[in-house]
């Protein structure tokens, strides 16, 4: 006997399948030790998947439905501002055994996690983690991110070094970094960098792939114009306001 499926069931199935996907689109990077999947969730929220492990950076509920995303094996928090530290998002992606790495301020607020200070080195499941300073340098801006408090992170995954700079300006420490393959650099004045400051960092560290993130209302095309003519750097523009 031929039966028909009610349209509302079909639509519900389509919507459920759509919501269960990691969105928006993801980038695949070959690391020499397997594929790394990078998903830009929005603003400064990132998701890395490598060898079946899921690593989140600054999950923020306004950027994705975290109840529909994979549970976290590791969560990295750069600092305690509301668009970086979201306890609801953390709860939604946490499972028994989820590791959290962050700053002293964050760990004191949420009463969990491992503290990494600027310059600390760690290793998590074969992935190298280095905490790098993230702070403002322009007069009058240090109220936002004072030196010594907040983190950026460098992840060494296979043969790739991925910099997630956190909320920072073009600090001497940032411009001194070497062998960065992929860089996430913030561009949201007055809190982080202007396009010109991002360009100075890019010129100094020469990442193979650049993402500008945490961009707010800053015009991304300004940075695109500044980078015109620079060879060896792929600027990947994503929706990361």
The run of helices and strands is HEEEEEHEHEEEEEHEHEHE
Q: Return residue spans where pLDDT drops below 50 for at least 5 consecutive residues.
A: 1-23
Query: Which class do the helix and strand fractions yield?
Result: alpha/beta
Indicate the CATH architecture. Answer: 4-Layer Sandwich
The total domain count is 1
**What share of the residues does DSSP label as strand, in percent?**
25-35%
Strand and helix layout:
Layout: H1 7-19, E1 26-30, E2 35-42, E3 45-50, E4 53-57, E5 74-76, H2 87-93, E6 99-102, H3 104-110, E7 114-115, E8 121-124, E9 127-134, E10 150-157, E11 160-164, H4 172-175, E12 182-186, H5 195-205, E13 209-213, H6 220-226, E14 234-235
Task: Describe this entry's structure for a reader.
With 241 residues, this protein is an alpha/beta fold. It has one domain (25-235): Metallo-beta-lactamase, Chain A (4-Layer Sandwich). It has 6 helices and 14 strands. It has helices at residues 7-19, 87-93, 104-110, 172-175, 195-205, 220-226; strands spanning 26-30, 35-42, 45-50, 53-57, 74-76, 99-102, 114-115, 121-124, 127-134, 150-157, 160-164, 182-186, 209-213, 234-235. Strands 1-2-3-4-5-6-7 form a 7-stranded mixed sheet. Helix 5 (195-205) packs across helix 6 (220-226). The longest helix has 13 residues, at 7-19.
Give descriptors for this structure.
7-stranded mixed sheet; Metallo-beta-lactamase, Chain A; disordered N terminus; single chain; 14 strands; alpha/beta; 241 residues; globular
